[in-house]
Amino acid sequence: EITLDGEPIGRKNIARLSFATSEHSFFPALSPEGHADFYARHFPKFDRKRFDVLMDFFELPLRGEPAKFSTGQKNQFEVVLALSQGADYILMDEPFSGNDVFNREDFYKVLLGILGPEETVLLSTHLIEEVEDFIGRALLIHKGQLMGDVHMSGLEETGEGLVDYVKRNYNYRADRIKRAISELSGED
């Protein structure tokens, strides 16, 4: 059973969750302006100022159909909606795919600057080198199984980086590259 702070998720607490996915949950034919109006009516803590500032930051138009945005713009718009909803828990599934390294880096800085103490971001990503400096905790899931759970402060104490922690917990074999090249080149 999935709960939110010990309570079953239902109508009374669902607005405490927001979700940004690279598969896009927005209404494709509704303009961003229309989304803002919809969110303002349905989510009591919707932050219109945050919405407008993030739309401007990402240089996204308020008019037009999000379905016609590029992949990166769609992901940015999804993140704007999730961060503006006013939720306590913001779930993001690969929110930065389709964005270049500069956009991602700028977004991380903005994210850290706008989150309030009552907001928690749960982020799934393969870009671990990019996020290890600002996350507080990492859960490693592989093929549906929890493979690791570490607080970043604990890693700092040991001197191990997140990438090395992931490699160790996933039983990464560093020799596999050399072996593959050797097999392909016919060398032993």
UniProtKB/TrEMBL annotation:
Q: Which InterPro entries match?
A: ABC_Transporter_VariousFunc (IPR051782), P-loop_NTPase (IPR027417)
Q: Which source organism does the UniProt entry give?
A: Candidatus Scatomorpha intestinigallinarum
Which keywords describe this protein according to UniProt? ATP-binding, Nucleotide-binding, Transport
Q: What GO MF terms are annotated?
A: ATP binding
Q: In the UniProt record, does the keyword Nucleotide-binding occur?
A: yes
Q: What is this protein called?
A: ABC transporter ATP-binding protein
Superkingdom of the source?
A: Bacteria
The family database entries (Gene3D superfamilies) matched by this protein are listed as: P-loop containing nucleotide triphosphate hydrolases (3.40.50.300)
Query: Keyword ATP-binding, does the record have it?
Result: yes
